[in-house]
Amino acid sequence: MATSTTHRQSGPKPSKDLAHFTSLMNEGARAHIHVVLLGVKASDWTELMRIAARGLTYDALEHFQRNTGIAYERLLAWIQISPRTMARRKQQRRFLPGESDRLLRASRVFGKALELFEGDRDAASEWMLTPQPALGGETPIDVAQTELGSREIENLIGRIEHGVYS
Fold this sequence. Notes:
With about 170 residues, the chain is mainly α. The protein has nine helices and no strands.
């Protein structure tokens, strides 16, 4: 697979969040481990819901960008936030609940891709940015802009994990 520099960003290696995610994955933890990619420390889904309702901090996006290696502009398109709105969120240091939900959804999908590639961030990012025949030639990151599309990506990952040709 060819890597496009307009979609992937080289630079700093992922933070300790990625190592923590991989450790949890290897231990067999499954429920909501994706929040580690955002730098969020939530012990259960009720706490995570409260955090999302308050709005994730801007730092969550910075953690996610660092842990995915996906270019900032591409992440903004994925979570459907314009650069102008993002400038306001950066200044306010917090996302609105709906924006937080989209960021959580993106981390969930990327977490599944990361599991598929056994913790290999670069392979997961490349897969997310590469057109897939099972998606009619669309990229997973584009399909995953909606909840329905995200669920389809998760289903596709499940089929790949179980060796089902798609």
